[in-house]
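pls design
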């Protein structure tokens, strides 16, 4: 079987229509990209998903695909295809995924004593059990909180205390860190170990799975009930809890699966994201399985481009006209605008805040709230809009262009400069591995652009002054001359969050600190 790369091509979906309550996932045939009259604008206007009162992705999507399999109306692709690169392989049909996830649901309910609404932190690598736990949490109504294995004991303590999670599921690599802070987490009642061996104070996942019954009654979950929480790093303070409902991912990612990834039940999708990130949920669970596609997983402990090139086939890019450098156009179901500081919509060509209209009706697929932080949630609303925190411009054709994070934009002598543009220009030079651009105080201009640059080993020994001049000239040629970094500092590495985001705020504070 060939692997389908992430692609943007649009064609008539080959997935069969599923029975209600999946009407929310169905689009009329006039919207199908293969139709002669199809266009982006037509799709946007005709995309009107029905939002049911009750919805559970495990029952209403995955179990329906299992029924379609039994009826012989689906391709022979498995639901999950996992390999470890050393000869081990797992292929589960939707029916097998259903049986195993029901067993895990019984483990969560019976052995762990979890009830609907309880929170579960899951820190696992790319192993099949991660997918089983995801589906089992849906079946039991427990709220999944994914985490990356890069988390330190301090990170885990923060997540346990903030979320009040009753259970944590992880393996031998993270269990010691959990044990070192577990005593400080009064809500933590169950520790579940996904490993071959045993550990004091932990239940063994695989032992319990063998003993668990395979019959389980899926909970009744309302569309707006919380389904998952992601800890997201901001520019200030500790990571915040972003809550998503059964509807926002289970139905909302129809757009991603059908129109962006262009998946059908005959396709195989490989998403290389770490299981700790939201992207793993988007493309390794919901977008693919909404369409009945196969999720391919390579264990790959660390990203290795050689493995990717050995496994992957080519990509397929066609459909809507692509403007290099732009963000594209808004997804159907969202009214995205550029607004000013008062919430007024700005005309094309004017820079402002990228925002999503939430009044009079909040899009059901937008995240629910910042859990346990109503002030933070309220602070994101400006007039009729949810403010994303990004600055951008919309052109005459309706394409959006990213400028930078709102608090990162530099105002130098009246010129507004987005750090992303300067960083993108710098990284095009062969000497630059990565860079971070922030504002720096200047007595004449108020503030100027400063770049922190990590050089490649081939250029690290070059004269700093000559290297700075070469990079400044390069930026002037690649982008508007006024955006070039008037200050530059060569560093060995850049400060980053656990999710790999550059901490510009830390560098900015360093620049503006008065000694």
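designed seq:
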């Amino acid at each position: 079987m060939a692997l389908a790369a992430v692609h943007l091509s649009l064609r008539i979906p080959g997935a069969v229509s599923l029975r209600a309550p999946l009407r929310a996932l169905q689009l009329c045939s006039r919207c199908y990209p293969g139709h002669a009259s199809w266009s982006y604008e037509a799709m946007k206007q005709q995309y009107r998903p029905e939002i049911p009162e009750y919805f559970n992705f495990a029952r209403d999507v995955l179990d329906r695909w299992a029924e379609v399999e039994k009826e012989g109306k689906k391709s022979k692709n498995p639901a999950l295809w996992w390999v470890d690169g050393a000869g081990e392989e797992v292929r589960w049909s939707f029916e097998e995924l259903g049986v195993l996830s029901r067993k895990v649901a019984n483990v969560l309910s019976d052995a762990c004593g979890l009830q609907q609404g309880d929170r579960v932190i899951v820190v696992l690598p790319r192993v099949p059990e991660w997918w089983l736990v995801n589906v089992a949490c849906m079946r039991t109504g427990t709220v999944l909180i994914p985490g990356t294995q890069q988390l330190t004991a301090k990170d885990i303590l923060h997540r346990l205390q903030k979320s009040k999670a009753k259970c944590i599921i992880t393996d031998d690599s993270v269990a010691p860190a959990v044990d070192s802070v577990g005593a400080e987490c009064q809500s933590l009642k169950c520790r579940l170990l996904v490993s071959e061996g045993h550990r004091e104070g932990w239940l063994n996942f695989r032992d319990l799975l063998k003993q668990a019954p395979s019959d389980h009654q899926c909970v009744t979950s309302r569309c707006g009930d919380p389904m998952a929480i992601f800890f997201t790093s901001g520019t200030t303070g500790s990571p915040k809890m972003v809550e998503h409902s059964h509807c926002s991912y289970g139905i909302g990612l129809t757009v991603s699966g059908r129109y962006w990834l262009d998946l059908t039940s005959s396709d195989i999708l490989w998403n290389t994201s770490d299981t700790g990130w939201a992207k793993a949920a988007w493309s390794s669970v919901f977008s693919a399985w909404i369409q009945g596609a196969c999720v391919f997983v390579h264990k790959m402990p660390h990203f290795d481009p050689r493995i990717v090139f050995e496994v992957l086939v080519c990509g397929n890019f066609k459909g809507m006209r692509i403007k290099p450098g732009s963000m594209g156009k808004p997804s159907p179901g969202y009214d995205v605008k550029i607004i000013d500081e008062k919430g007024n919509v700005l005309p094309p060509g004017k820079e402002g805040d990228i925002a999503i209209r939430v009044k009079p009706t909040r899009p059901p697929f937008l995240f629910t709230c910042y859990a346990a932080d109503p002030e933070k949630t309220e602070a994101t609303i400006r007039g009729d809009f949810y403010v994303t925190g990004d600055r951008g411009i919309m052109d005459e054709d309706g394409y959006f262009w990213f400028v930078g994070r709102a608090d990162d934009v530099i105002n130098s002598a009246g010129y507004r400069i987005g750090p992303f543009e300067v960083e993108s220009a710098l990284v095009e030079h062969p000497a630059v591995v990565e860079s971070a651009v922030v504002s720096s105080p200047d007595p004449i201009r108020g503030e100027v652009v400063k770049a922190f640059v990590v050089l490649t080993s081939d250029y690290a020994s070059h004269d700093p002054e000559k290297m700075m001049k070469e990079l400044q000239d390069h930026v002037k040629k690649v982008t508007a001359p006024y955006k070039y970094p008037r200050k530059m500092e060569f560093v060995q590495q850049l400060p980053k969050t656990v999710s790999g985001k550059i901490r510009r705020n830390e560098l900015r504070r360093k620049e503006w600190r008065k000694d």
